[in-house]
Amino acid sequence: MIDMHQEIRDAVTRLCADFPNEYWRKLDAERAYPRDFVDALTAQGYLAALIPEEYGGIGLGLSAGVAILEEIHRAGGNAAACHAQMYTMGTLLRHGNDAQKARYLPGIAEGSLRLQAFGVTEPGSGTNTPAIKTFARRDGDRYIVNGQKIWTSRAEHSDLMILLARTTPLPEVTRKTDGLSVFILDMNAARGKGLRISPIRTMMNHATCEVFFDDVEIPAENLIGEEGRGFRYIMSGMNAERILIAAECIGDAKWLIGKASAYATEREVFGRPIGQNQGIAFPIAQAYARMRAAELMVQDAVRRYEVGENPGAEANMAKMLAAEASWEAAEAAVQTFGGFGFAEEYDIERKFRETRLYQVAPISTNLILSYIAEHVLGMPRSY
Ligand SMILES: Cc1cc2nc3c(=O)[nH]c(=O)nc-3n(C[C@H](O)[C@H](O)[C@H](O)COP(=O)(O)OP(=O)(O)OC[C@H]3O[C@@H](n4cnc5c(N)ncnc54)[C@H](O)[C@@H]3O)c2cc1C
What we know:
Layout: H1 6-17, H2 21-30, H3 35-43, H4 62-74, H5 84-95, H6 98-110, E1 117-119, E2 135-139, E3 142-153, E4 160-166, E5 180-186, H7 187-190, E6 195-200, E7 208-219, E8 223-224, H8 230-235, H9 238-266, E9 268-269, E10 272-273, H10 278-306, H11 312-337, H12 348-356, H13 365-376
Parallel strand pairs: 1-4
Antiparallel strand pairs: 2-3, 3-7, 4-5, 5-8, 6-7, 9-10
The structure holds flavin-adenine dinucleotide (FAD).
């Protein structure tokens, strides 16, 4: 049985009490970054939970990350402002060389360096990652990068970016996943020197951006691992990413179900609580059952991950089921709250918007179903 980290959960819940719904609601209205919240999480070491102790982190397993992110969402918060640090850091940790790890990980662990940006998606490639066009051309002891990323979340609030770029043109590689490379980009050094960041306003407060590269220089020493093998390095972090996002969805579902069941119990219409009507109670109960099933899949995926398996199927299924469960809970909550479900001060509409994202990003439900069909059930590849 994996450690469910009850002490960490309690401590995160206490921290989140300082950042109540009013805090998130105000940020949402202003589309502002939760700087104070991220600073508090960093100060207490939670964003360094998965960084090994030798680099100044706490050195815990993925289950600790699951506990932290789930509890933030269960408290009504939104860890999307900072969650990427937990999984992008893994690319550096697993594939970076000693000098890169020594240079960056201690700063990330203590909070002086933010590794929040993950530049993979491009306007013309979307789900088809090998089709990216951003190109890094080797020129002596540096690479020159040209291209564009989209949906690079937190780019304005990050010092470093894990960047995927093509280093060999697509027509020149045997497999389309070859010829891609990963870099650690010092965004502070590149700002004003060819790097331009432009925020995208979205239906929720997500600090996501377009990023333009115009002859941006990256020292060759910032190439992670071997040139041309970047796709594998990025993919190796996907299981952790999916499991952590699934945990956030479980947290969202618990928050929404808690709100909906409480409101259904106290709100009286026709002189009786609305929760007495099965039309109100059953959707909430159904969402709870689906959340619990998804939670078990998350736990199974974490357990497999922590014993060193490659739980691609379980991580994908956990993410899909948890995202569906949180969405079902959001639907039930809006219906339960009636008109008040649409009022900002009840926070239901905010969570409804926030939790919808996870059926699209970081990977869409369709692509997860494709994965299961092909890799688990042995059916033909769809793309
Ligand atoms: C708020 C937000 C934050 C994000 N943050 C980041 C980030 O930090 N870094 C980053 O690199 N990316 C980020 N993304 C990008 C995200 O990973 C992509 O949006 C997602 O992978 C889908 O790609 P797309 O939007 O281009 O959709 P498309 O690839 O254009 O697909 C559109 C629809 O078609 C479906 N589809 C496509 N191909 C198939 C197929 N073969 N079979 C069935 N259905 C298919 C998809 O499932 C999807 O529903 C973010 C996105 C959003 C919205």
